[in-house]
Structures are given as C-alpha cells and as structure tokens.
Amino acid sequence: MPDKEEIYDITIDENMAGTRIDLVLSLSLADTSRSYLQKLITRGLVKINGDVCSSKKLKVETGDVVRVTVPEPEELKIEAENIPLDIVYEDSDVLVVNKPKGMVVHPAAGNYTGTLVNAVMYHCGDSLSSINGVIRPGIVHRIDKDTSGLLMIAKNDNAHRSLAAQLAAHSSTRGYKAIVYNAFSEDEGTVDKPIGRSRRNRLKQAVGGLNEKEAVTHYKVLERLGKYTFLELRLETGRTHQIRVHMTYINHPLLGDGVYGPVRNPFGVEGQLLHAYLLGFIHPTTGEYMEFRAELPAEFAKVLNRLRTTG
Predict the structure, then answer these.
(1) Is-catalytic flag, 146?
(2) Fewest C-beta atoms under 10 Å: which of 74, 189, 234, 256?
(3) Each residue of 224-273: pLDDT tens digit?
(4) Is residue 280, in this structure, part of any structural domain at all?
(5) Vertex 296: Cα angle to 94 and 82 (nearest 5)
(6) Which of 22, 64, 93, 144 is catalytic?
(7) pLDDT tens digit string along 134-150?
C-alpha cells in the first residue's frame, strides 16, 4: 500500500481491448477493491490517453494508455478482524494457513479490511513478528489475491528470519497446481527466464522486463484435457506473478487469468486457477523438516471435473 501518491500507467494490449475500464483496473490492481477503483474514476483520477475518464462503463481499445492516480492514504490504521481462518498447523513459532481465493494477503489502497493480515492479527494478537511492519505483521511471503493455498506466518522475529532465509536460499518447498490453456507435447520442463517489471505496464511483470531477476519454474503435466492442461509447478525462485508470467511466456496462460491471458473464458472463472497445494520448510526452533498439503478448492475441482468429462 502506498504511503504517498502513486501513479500507474497501463498500456492496453489486444487481450484487454473491448473491456470496461473498471474491469481493466480491477484486473491490473488486483489488491485494490473494485469499489475503490470506481471511486477513483468518479473523482477524475483515471485518464485515458490524457483525457479524464467519464464513465466506469467506458471500454478501452488496443494501444490506449490508462493513467491511474492513487492518492496518499489519509490515515493508516490496521484493525484486527474476527475472520475465520483455515489453519493447517500452528505452534508458538509458526502458523500455516490455507488462504481462500479472493482474499488479499495484506492491506492495500482501498482494501484496508478483510485481508489475511486482519484475520491473523485477531487470531494471534501480539504474537506476530514485527519485521515487516504494521502493514504485514508476520507475513514472510505472499501469494496473489486470486491464488489460493498455503502460506506460512511467523509468530516472532526469530522465526521470521529463519523462514525468510530459507526462501532466499531456495531451500523451502513450494508446489502449485494449475489449469492452463493449450496442450503440451512434453511431459515436464523448466522455464528459466529472468522476470522484471513490464516496460509497457508497470503493474505487470514480464520476461525481459526492467530490473529483471533470476526466475526458475519447473512444471509437470498431470493430465491432458483437450485444449487445456492440468499442471503441477515447483518454484525455485519467488518473483511477483512468476508462474503466471512464465506460463504465458511459453503460450500456456492460466485459465481465468485476465491479466496475462484471455479476459473471458467459457467457464466464467474470474481469477487464475492456481493453488499453492504444497509447502515445506525447516522449523525455526526444532530444525525438523515439515511439509503440508491443501486440497484443491471447490471452484478449481469443479472446473477440473468438467474438463475431465468433456475433454
């Protein structure tokens, strides 16, 4: 969440052409609520090709440049909220939760409530690491709003440092399952391409982007489903949107991912079908390796079963 005014420029590509401006903003600024983005339009803080956007229903075209100004927040106060958590494991050092699709991990502009942080603050009270400050207490790593699955939360600073070091050393285990477009000829493979901020849209990441960093994703075909494929993916690195960018780069965007793939799909899925099903790490205190798994969420399983039936 910005602590000062932020300006974002979005260049519309063919994928988003013909889409309402409020949907474009909602897809591009995924951690920001759609109602807040609509208020920015009303306040004249969204421009298209230099002209103030007059309506949230206006449709963008290929090549349009959208500029969004997100004002500095007036006051920053994050409250604990009694939101149910799917707790997979908990002790005095670590909390492992299964985040549902649609939940933002930590507060962002226009999304100060209803986040995983709000829920964890209520559950843990003062027992959270302070290393990441008031916005992200206990948060060691994050997954996108529309990605479901396992996250580890540090309940003290020593645990936070240990878990963060494992992520930096690529020694933790993170496994994902996804449904992607198009069939694979091979059974498994690796995408080893650096990722940086997109040169055309600073809200997106891209292979060959600005300030790129090493990014390695391994994939394995679990099932071939006609025009789609059910994949298992393992991360060596943890760049922003890494799986989504790498899969799009090899022409297999994730089903439901309106930012990096088709905005609309025949299943009516909003947000990528990507699930962090596997998480493993060495316990910060005991030194024991621990591994956890989470079943596919209902929406994901429903689409998968439909594809298995229809091919």
Answers:
(1) no
(2) 74
(3) 999 999 999 999 888 989 999 999 999 999 999 999 999 899 999 999 99
(4) no
(5) 50
(6) 144
(7) 567 788 888 999 999 99
